[in-house]
């Protein structure tokens, strides 16, 4: 399997290149400003770590080449999501806000939190000081999970130092506190998840997939 890595010069793109090199994965690196370079590249699957602004261009390339696409960017518009759903009818697309297996296990645990009158839910997230989106895509995933149970959490978002990612879901009532925590200590965990996503969909014909599908397949 040869991976076309888009956004190779970004923070996660560089981490992904290191992962591929260490694990002897065949890949070709493309910077996010890839309009001219991308069309001439060949591979078996596209891994997009670029930006939401480049999505339509990358989707078009994937559709024209009939290649599976793994989308690792976040903060997409409704128009982007609509286009992703539409193109997944033609090609296989894998999309996630967080490629950590354990984070997605946390998200499954959060589903079991039910709204009660005497309790309050707080979501705390901490990321490095250069992270732009607040709340993060991962935090939005947890918020969406809670809202399915009619819970609107209080959200605390901090951007400090070089923290990769900490997410806490705290449940308070008058007698006890439950705290669920996920802490990322290396970005390589995202690389492993993204690579597993590539392996998961490379043989699929079409459809829209996420980490839930990947976890169920393990």
**Quaternary structure type:** single chain
**Helix-and-strand structural type:** alpha/beta
- Shape summary: globular
Helix content: 25-40%
Task: Estimate what percentage of residues fall within beta strands.
Answer: 15-25%
What's the β-strand tally?
10
Nearest-integer average pLDDT: 93
Under CATH at level 1, the class of the largest domain stands as Alpha Beta
Could you spell the SSE succession in H and E letters? EHEHEHEHEHEHEEEHEH
Describe this structure in words.
It is a single chain. With 218 residues, the chain is an alpha/beta fold. It has two domains: 3-97 and 188-217, NAD(P)-binding Rossmann-like Domain (Rossmann fold); 101-184, Dihydrodipicolinate Reductase, domain 2. It contains eight helices and ten strands. The protein has helices at residues 11-22, 35-38, 55-65, 78-87, 101-110, 137-147, 188-201, 211-217; strands spanning 3-6, 27-30, 45-48, 69-71, 92-95, 120-127, 154-159, 165-172, 177-184, 207-209. The strands form two sheets. It has a six-stranded parallel β-sheet with strand order 2-1-3-4-5-10, sandwiched between helices. The longest helix is centred in the C-terminal third of the chain and has 14 residues, at 188-201.
């Amino acid at each position: 399997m040869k991976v076309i890595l888009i956004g190779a010069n970004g923070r996660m793109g560089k981490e992904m290149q290191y992962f591929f090199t260490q694990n002897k994965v065949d890949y070709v690196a493309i910077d996010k400003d890839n309009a001219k370079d991308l069309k001439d590249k060949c591979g078996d699957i596209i891994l997009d770590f670029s930006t939401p602004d480049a999505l339509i261009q990358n989707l078009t390339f994937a559709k024209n080449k009939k290649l599976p696409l793994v989308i690792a960017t976040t903060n997409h518009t409704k128009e982007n999501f609509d286009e992703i759903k539409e193109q997944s009818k033609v090609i296989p697309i894998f999309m996630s806000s967080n490629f950590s297996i354990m984070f997605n296990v946390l998200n499954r645990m959060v589903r079991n939190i039910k709204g009660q009158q005497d309790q309050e839910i707080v979501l705390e997230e901490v990321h490095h000081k250069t992270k732009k989106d607040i709340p993060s895509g991962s935090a939005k995933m947890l918020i969406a999970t809670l809202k399915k149970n009619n819970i609107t959490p209080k959200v605390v978002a901090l951007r400090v130092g070089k923290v990769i990612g900490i997410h806490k879901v705290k449940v308070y009532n008058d007698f006890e506190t439950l705290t669920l925590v996920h802490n990322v200590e290396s970005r390589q965990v995202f690389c492993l998840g993204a690579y597993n996503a590539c392996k998961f969909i490379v043989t699929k014909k079409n459809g829209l997939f996420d980490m839930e599908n990947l976890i169920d397949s393990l």
